[in-house]
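[job 0412] stage=fold_complex status=start
inputs:
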Amino acid sequence: MAFSLNKLFSPKDRVFYSLFEQSTNNLVEMGEAFVAALRDPDRTKRDMALRGLDDLEHKNDEVTHQIFIELGRNFITPFDREDIHTLTTALDDVADYIWGSAKRIVYYNVAEIDETMHKMADVILESIMTLQIGVRELRNMKNLKAITDSCVKVNSLENDADELLDAAIVRLFDGSQNIDAIELIKRKDLYEEMETVTDKCEDAANVIESIIIKYA
Amino acid sequence: MAFSLNKLFSPKDRVFYSLFEQSTNNLVEMGEAFVAALRDPDRTKRDMALRGLDDLEHKNDEVTHQIFIELGRNFITPFDREDIHTLTTALDDVADYIWGSAKRIVYYNVAEIDETMHKMADVILESIMTLQIGVRELRNMKNLKAITDSCVKVNSLENDADELLDAAIVRLFDGSQNIDAIELIKRKDLYEEMETVTDKCEDAANVIESIIIKYA
Amino acid sequence: MAFSLNKLFSPKDRVFYSLFEQSTNNLVEMGEAFVAALRDPDRTKRDMALRGLDDLEHKNDEVTHQIFIELGRNFITPFDREDIHTLTTALDDVADYIWGSAKRIVYYNVAEIDETMHKMADVILESIMTLQIGVRELRNMKNLKAITDSCVKVNSLENDADELLDAAIVRLFDGSQNIDAIELIKRKDLYEEMETVTDKCEDAANVIESIIIKYA
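[job 0412] stage=fold_complex status=done
writing structure:
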């Protein structure tokens, strides 16, 4: 059997930390590209940038797949297999729902990015960046407070997204905007998809919190 | 380290039974408040009562959080960790979807509570009260028949809710009600949210059933 | 205790292979009946055939229930308990979402089966038949390539369904079809339900792939 330098210097369970970091780094890139696309006043360029998120979503799929392969291969894992599985799925869902939001804007032919969408995208990006910190600190477990703080903050950002959604739904149905049913369907569906991104971030934060409880 | 009388008299795995009972007790309170709110002829009071369910949903969140903390702390659990996790999640989802139903009524500006909504709320409450019995009997496992019966009944109530939903959907789309698209969206979404509460009760009952199979 | 010839010749863990095969055989029957019903030009007969899928869905529920009972009874299982659980749930979901699609066509009063629905049904059937091959080969694990190939193909079929959905959604919202909001709701909901069948097939294939990684 060939001797692998790579394996020598990265013990088997270290691979999971690297893969989780790849995933959150990729998600941050996705979140930044999403926020930037929504800010673009040129609709053609905006839609092109949103379509481009597809590539980042695929990149995340590959990391997810890699983690599951490593999980199948390794008997020893840095934390519970089930926690690795749930965290991976949550991070994968974050990418899926950002891509789902981007797709809806393009495919539903959304003409105007409203204040709710901008604010929601900002919350999504902040939530992902906060997750990135928590994941990075998992590697050495030296700064437990930083991990806990990041989990608490992700939960609080999910509440913010919830409130943004609720307020937007009330406005959609109170008749004040004078929009037709098809326009209402488009916005309701898009707002809900965006809010779900923060739910998935919260799922990820909850796993990280439970890892801390067990291993701290 | 201080000596805790509480811990002396409640062995560690007993804590899970207490927490599950707290959760189902809380859910029954939520279900009763939900049914009562829908029966209130005064719309302002109805909406206020529905908004009040938020507090009960938060109370349930806290129990859920507590169970996950105990799960992280305890090596020995009264039944499979995975079953505890799934049951907790299902009970938490029951609270979430009742709150989701309450929110929709208020935020969608639903003017009239129709027969389907009343009947659905009744099925939800009965389903939760049946779950409460099953959960209470888990503690001593002396009355297995009572547990099985409660699981069977929750499954049958979920079928009732399914039939209520199906009949309501047929009426929405057969053109007989002469309602506009936005009204259709509101009702369809609300009916589906309410039916999902019974799905989550069924999920909880299915875990309880699988616990019985393993430990009886 | 009576001596069971059946048990003599089918070691306990073999029961899982048989049950998984029963489930996928049943799903193939469901998929074929679904495709055939959609092709029926007589709407009354079509709707009757679609309603008939209910029975097959119930049959699948029973297999699902049987697998969970066996899982509770048996300490030794042919592969990880969690994988058995996830695979069973995914196969059950496939049946649920086919039935959900059939129901929507009938209950939403869908007048015309369009090209997207036909193509989507074809992809669903092909996906299920591909799963059937993978599941059948699990029994002896002699033909790993056949299993892997089937998983790859199910993933690729899910992409096909995604593209069908995306294209159909674009057409719904680009204003070219001149349909009203209620018609749009019906089709959007039905397309999405059908696409979800292939997501669930993909979930099943992903578990099968992870079983292969661990046991090969």
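[job 0412] summary: The interface with chain C takes residues 68-69, 71-73, 82, 103, 107-109, 180-182, 185-186 of chain A (CB under 8 Å).
[job 0412] exit 0
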